[in-house]
Design brief:
globular, 21% strand, Arc Repressor Mutant, subunit A, nine-stranded mixed β-sheet, alpha/beta, 15 helices, TIM Barrel, single chain, 2 domains
């Protein structure tokens, strides 16, 4: 199996925390779609023809800015050039784009999962983040999507907003669970250098939350999700039984995928690579018949360490049999014993799994096991 990720690099406005690749020059959208169609055709041999594409994911940016004609043209090109056996078709969307007609059109084109970037239900926080939607649109998004017939829904939330108490985060979680989308992805607010928050922090105009404050909100997230019947199948992702997001799950499980569009990443099972993160240069390269793609060769050691890092983030853990059979590697037994004694990991059915405490230190635990 394999997947295809398509990056739509446009947003109405720049969120103050975001360092993903995007542009607010939406007038170039039609040209970009044309180039995406050409790249899809030019890279049709990246994935094995015998390996069916089971998941498609439109990310960004804001894919919900595409109109029906643009979205349909990309989907038709996918069916024309790829062996599709779809188990899930996801489109990221902002709440303010989800009007009834828009939802009807998206669903008619085969999209069966919406990933909705809510981030917060608090009006003040939304304005501080410079989100394009307001509180009421956040509240309406899930209901409108359910009314349109979508059965697989995910919402994104951000924790770690600096505040004197956890009250805003507690209310966000309460509201999210009242809406009960079935899947919730939640990420800590990260201050990146080339963002508005990064600039404010450098100038002393913004103070980020302490590590302890953020950790407490993560623990509150785990507690509330568990009580509501959500399973933490990856550190940042919670889903009810049968609602796990397949495309993102496959990333963590090392399934090959093709990335299309500026800044998109790809993985063929052995090598990673990425497209140039510049809209103008991406368009120029595609027009000239060149692929704006750089290959990142991975050594055997890097592949093993990457597997350790990604698998530990998941419910299924790091499979010791797989490490031995596929790579001829055994983890350091003394290090494993040390981590078990620290109650950071446990070993079940010959797989290393993080404890709740370990999930707070996932990268550190993984690094201690690297070969």
């Amino acid at each position: 199996m394999s997947g295809i990720y398509i990056h739509i690099p446009f947003c109405k406005q720049a969120c103050h925390y975001c360092d993903f690749h995007f542009s607010t020059q939406i007038q170039n959208k039609a040209v970009m779609v044309e180039m995406i169609l050409l790249e899809l055709e030019n890279r049709k041999d990246f994935l094995s023809i015998t390996d069916p594409v089971e998941t498609i994911y439109f990310g960004g940016g804001t894919p919900s800015l595409l109109n029906e004609k643009e979205l349909a043209s990309i989907i038709n090109t996918l069916y024309k050039h790829y062996n599709l056996d779809l188990k899930e078709f996801t489109l990221e969307a902002n709440p303010d784009d989800l009007q009834p007609n828009k939802l009807k059109n998206i669903k008619s084109l085969g999209v069966d999962r919406l990933s909705i970037g809510i981030q917060s239900f608090d009006e003040g926080v939304l304005k501080f983040y410079n989100r394009a939607h307001n509180q009421q649109e956040s509240l309406n998004a899930i209901d409108l999507a359910k009314d349109a017939g979508f059965e697989k829904l995910s919402i994104d939330l951000i924790y770690g907003f600096p505040n004197e108490t956890h009250s805003i985060w507690e209310k966000d979680l309460e509201q999210a669970l009242i809406l009960d989308p079935g899947h919730i992805s939640s990420y800590a607010l990260t201050i990146e250098p080339k963002t508005a928050f990064g600039n404010w922090l450098k100038k002393g105009e913004f103070n980020e939350a302490s590590e302890d404050f953020v950790a407490e909100q993560f623990e509150l997230l785990q507690k509330e999700m568990t009580m509501a019947g959500y399973i933490q199948y990856e550190i940042s992702n919670f889903g009810k039984a049968g609602q796990f997001a397949l495309h993102n799950t496959n990333y963590w499980l090392g399934v090959p995928y093709l990335g299309i569009g500026p800044s998109a990443h790809s993985f063929d099972g052995k090598k990673r690579g990425h497209n140039i993160a510049n809209n103008a240069l991406y368009i120029k390269s595609i027009r000239e018949g060149k692929l704006p793609y750089q290959v990142d060769e991975l050594s055997e050691e890097e592949l093993v360490n990457e597997y350790i890092l990604t698998s530990l983030r998941t419910l299924w853990g790091c499979d010791l049999d797989k490490l031995n059979m596929e790579y001829g590697v055994q983890l350091d037994q003394e290090e494993l014993k040390k981590l078990i004694n620290l109650k950071l990991i446990a070993i079940h059915e010959n797989a290393v799994k993080l404890s709740d405490k370990g999930k707070l230190l996932a990268d550190t635990v993984a690094a201690s096991l690297f070969i």
